[in-house]
Design goal:
Blueprint (H helix, E strand, L loop, with lengths): L2 H6 L2 H9 L4 E6 L5 E4 L1 H7 L18 H8 L2 H4 L4 E6 L5 E10 L7 E8 L1 H23 L3 E6 L4 E4 L1 H6 L4 H6 L2 H11 L7 H6 L8 E6 L5 E11 L2 E11 L1 H19 L3 E6 L4 E4 L1 H7 L13 E3 L2 E2 L3 H10 L4 E8 L5 E12 L5 E10 L1 H15 L9 H18 L3 E8 L2 H8 L1 H16 L7 E6 L2 E7 L3 H16 L2 E3 L2 E3 L3 E8 L6 H17 L5 E3 L2 H23 L2 E10 L4 E13 L3 E3 L1 H11 L2 H21 L5 E5 L2 H4 L4 H12 L6 E6 H5 L2 H14 L2 E7 L6 H6 L4 E4 L1 H4 L6 H17 L2 E5 L4 H9 L4 E3 L9 H14 L3 H7 L19
Parallel strand pairs: 23-24, 26-28, 28-29, 29-30, 30-31, 31-32, 32-33
Antiparallel strand pairs: 1-2, 1-5, 3-4, 4-5, 6-7, 6-10, 8-9, 9-10, 11-12, 11-17, 13-14, 13-15, 15-16, 16-17, 18-20, 18-23, 19-20, 21-22, 25-26, 25-33, 26-27
């Protein structure tokens, strides 16, 4: 309304028109910003009296700094645009209004129109709406499930933090608002790569569908997804998805399914009992164990019994263990319907609720019937010999311990007899081990028949038996031993075959010979061994000096086994001479042992010990290797000499002997004709067919074969005729009597004649004098070996002779006589000469 129009209208009429307005109006002096006029509507809005407010500054309405700043700058109200603000009522209350200030005239000192619309109700509605939205947002954020709200078109309206955490949304997705990126990220997180969001959103026919499914995320989380339509006045406007982490629930469900499968398929019998121990459920294995017994409804204790009878207190025993935080277990007998019993191992555990009260219990039963039978069998085997059913060493130990304890108290004597069957190996080798086992049973029966009730016969193993004679002095023990020897001389009959079994017995007594079973058996064994040495088939009491001899033998064997590694053994070579030319044509390799403790040990002592212990195989292999190496060295130095090596029966019978012989020759590049092997007649006559095959294999290699000690055994012309023998050696026992002894002359002449007839060389061993050499030559013998030429020499000394013989043509005997050798150099002695020395 312009001033011209106000001037036309009467003031009273103009004010009446302003008072009639519902909108609150103040007319302001533009220069002073004081109220010129206030209409009636402004009085109810501002609380200021419409008359009294005239002349007051407009700043009475400025209740906020923003209002005060507004009125301080005229540019703010010249725009005339409405805006929301707050004014201070007369009572000091701030109320929201929509305010507009516009000039009534164009002059700067004119009138301003201040209009105010009451916005209290609108503000209240907006506050209520904001509060509702805040509550909805808080509710959405406080939900345990991840929530996602989408429009029908597929855009995302809202989601909560739980959703972002569950799907591991990057922080950038929370600020950028890229719906497509969020949905793509969700699709990538699903194991099968398909979330089907778009299908559900974009298909109109699916707008009202409610869905539920389970998604497995790549991080291992299992999510249950539910989808419902979002309705507005019954019309779908979008979809709401809820996502719940059910990983633990899914695992629990899987565990329950697995537990159910285990319960049903377990091979152990399982029962479940209630809080008062009454059985409420059994698995199939338990039903099979019960064999018709109706278990449900019965107490657990009613099903079982122990070795001594019923176990009514079983529940109390179990509860006592449960209270200690453990479980009860033990061996029981399960009572079956037909009166039989089944051995079981029961493990019984308690199940507690959240209040730690026992609500159920589970029992696990394992059928121990077979194990129980096996245990009985094991115990039987533990104390008895499976072949003869006699007590074994363990049972004997228990009996003897008790007998020794009684003997200590009563002062009585206890005798131990060690019985060993003589030459039992012949039965096993000739008739087989099964036949031998049957013989052992017969021997056990015969010996058992000689025992008193208080005595014990035990089989230690093999063909060894031990007898414990309780309260038996030396006289009684001797009588028992003699009776055993007589009884064993009686013929045995098995499968129509009659035979005898001889035994040797050693006797030791408590307390004179030992205080423990081990000591007594050891002393009795020593006494038995002494019987074996003296011809077998007898008995002997233990004497202390027996142990001394055995100990010395053990120490000697131990030293022998260490001698090779310590360098205490060496190979010496004794020349073989061609009588007519007086030249060395071969040498026999002989082992020498000088020990720091035992001194020079004769081969006659350690060779039999090595053969008996089996160590001769190791020694023989070493001698062969060293001899071939030395022969190869002489060969390549231009002084070749044939080397003869002794081979024991045990070594020659090794299955790989020929193969090892070939390897040694090849490894040292020695032509085979420069090696000879010396064998005794006994080797060739035992398993003659197999030995003949082996001899031929060796001969085919080019290695010479020598019969050692010819004439001392049961010589057979047949094997000499058939086998490729290149040399025989006359034993020194026949040479020693030459030339005086007529029998020796006849034997030596016969052997030389046999050799000439067969076309093989004959070497006389042990030749020490010129007379012996002349006698052999007169009998047309061509070769000798012995002290007349030299004892066994170290390889360096023999090499010197070979070089002198090769360079100067000096004969072997002449060279020997020309050397100024001391007696110490020949300290090997006559007893060390010969093929076995």
């Amino acid at each position: 309304m312009t001033m011209q129009r106000l001037n036309v209208i009467q003031p009273s009429m103009a004010y009446a028109m302003l008072d009639a307005l519902q909108e609150a109006l103040w007319l302001l002096d533009a220069r002073q910003l004081t109220v010129v006029y206030a209409n009636a509507a402004s009085q109810s809005l501002t609380g200021f009296d419409a008359v009294q407010i005239r002349g007051q500054p407009v700043q009475v309405l400025a209740g906020t700094p923003l209002q005060q700043a507004f009125w301080s700058d005229p540019l703010n109200w010249q725009a005339g645009a409405p805006f929301l603000t707050q004014i201070r009522r007369a009572d000091g209350q701030l109320i929201p209004v929509e305010m507009k200030v516009s000039p009534l005239t164009a002059q700067a000192d004119g009138v301003l129109v201040l209009s105010m619309l009451d916005r209290r109700e609108q503000a209240q509605h907006e506050a209520e709406l904001e509060s509702l939205l805040s509550e909805l947002r808080a509710t959405l954020e406080s939900a345990a499930d991840g929530m996602l709200v989408c429009t029908l078109e597929g855009s995302i309206r809202a989601f909560n933090h739980r959703f972002a955490d569950l799907w591991q949304l990057p922080i950038s997705f929370l600020t950028q608002g890229d719906d497509a990126a969020i949905l793509a990220h969700m699709t990538a997180q699903v194991v099968n790569g398909e979330t089907e969001f778009r299908n559900l959103i974009t298909a109109p026919e699916q707008a009202m569908i409610e869905t539920s499914d389970v998604l497995e995320l790549v991080n291992g989380t299992v999510v249950e997804r539910r989808s419902v339509p979002q309705l507005c006045r019954g019309v779908p406007t979008g979809r709401i998805y809820s996502f719940r982490d059910i990983t633990d629930a899914a695992q629990s469900a899987a565990d329950l399914r697995l537990a159910a499968r285990v319960f049903e398929s377990s091979l152990d019998g399982i029962f479940i009992a209630d809080a008062v121990h009454r059985i409420v459920r059994t698995n199939p294995a338990c039903v099979r164990l019960l064999q018709g017994v109706q278990a449900q409804g019965q107490t657990v204790a009613a099903l079982f019994e122990s070795d001594t009878g019923p176990v009514e207190a079983l529940g109390e025993w179990a509860r006592a263990r449960w209270e200690q935080g453990g479980f009860w277990e033990g061996n029981l007998w399960l009572k079956l319907a037909d009166g039989r019993r089944c051995a079981v191992w029961l493990s019984w555990v308690a199940l507690r609720d959240a209040s730690d009260e026992i609500v159920q219990s589970i029992g696990f039963m394992r059928d121990m019937t077979q194990q129980y039978m096996d245990q009985q069998r094991i115990e039987q085997l533990a104390y008895s010999d499976p072949l003869t059913d006699l007590p074994n060493r363990l049972a004997l130990s228990m009996r003897v311990e008790a007998a020794i304890a009684e003997a200590r108290m009563t002062g009585s004597v206890l005798s131990i007899l060690f019985v060993d069957l003589d030459r039992f190996k012949i039965i096993n080798d000739s008739l087989g081990h099964e036949f031998g086992d049957r013989v052992l049973r017969l021997v056990a029966q015969r010996l058992s028949a000689l025992m008193r009730a208080e005595d014990m016969l035990c089989r230690l193993g093999g063909d060894e038996f031990v007898i414990c004679l309780q309260g038996c002095d030396a006289e009684r023990a001797a009588a028992v031993a003699e009776r055993i020897l007589r009884e064993m001389q009686q013929p045995f009959m098995l499968d129509g075959l009659g035979f005898s079994v001889q035994c040797s017995i050693g006797v030791a007594q408590f307390p004179t010979d030992g205080l423990t079973l081990d000591e007594l058996i050891r002393q009795a064994d020593i006494a038995m061994y002494r019987v074996k040495e003296r011809g077998r088939g007898n008995f002997s009491f233990y004497q202390p000096q027996m142990s001394a001899g055995l100990l010395s033998r053990m120490k000697l064997e131990h030293a022998m086994r260490q001698a090779l590694d310590k360098g205490h053994m060496a190979i010496y070579y004794q020349p073989q001479v061609h009588i007519e030319t007086d030249r060395i044509v071969a040498a026999e390799a002989l082992m020498r042992w000088t020990d720091p403790e035992f001194g020079v040990v004769s081969p006659a002592v350690f060779i039999p010990l090595a053969e008996e212990s089996g160590y001769i195989v190791t020694l023989g292999a070493w001698v062969l290797e060293q001899s071939v190496q030395e022969a190869a060295r002489w060969y390549f130095q231009g002084t070749p000499l044939k080397v003869s090596v002794n081979v024991s029966a045990l070594e020659f019978r090794q299955p790989d002997f020929v193969e090892r012989l070939l390897q040694v020759l090849q490894r040292n590049a020695l032509p085979a004709q420069w090696l000879e092997l010396e064998l005794t007649e006994s080797i060739l006559l035992t398993d003659a067919q197999e030995m003949a095959l082996r001899v031929r294999q060796i001969a085919e290699l080019g290695v010479g074969l020598v019969i050692d000690d010819f004439g001392t055994g049961y010589s057979s012309m047949a094997y000499l005729k058939k086998l490729p023998i290149s040399k025989i050696k006359v034993d020194q026992s026949f040479v020693r009597g030459l030339p005086e002894d007529e029998e020796d002359r006849a034997i030596v002449a016969a052997v030389i004649s046999i050799g000439q007839a067969l076309g093989v060389e004959v070497v006389a061993e042990g030749v020490e004098t010129g007379e012996q050499c002349a006698a052999i030559y007169n009998m047309r013998g061509s070769y000798f070996q012995g002290y007349l030429c030299a004892p066994a020499l170290p390889p360096e000394q023999l090499l010197q002779r070979l070089k002198a013989q090769h360079e100067q043509g000096v004969g072997a005997v002449a060279y020997s006589q020309s050397l100024e050798l001391s007696m110490d150099a020949n300290a090997d002695g006559a007893g060390m000469a010969g093929s076995r020395q």
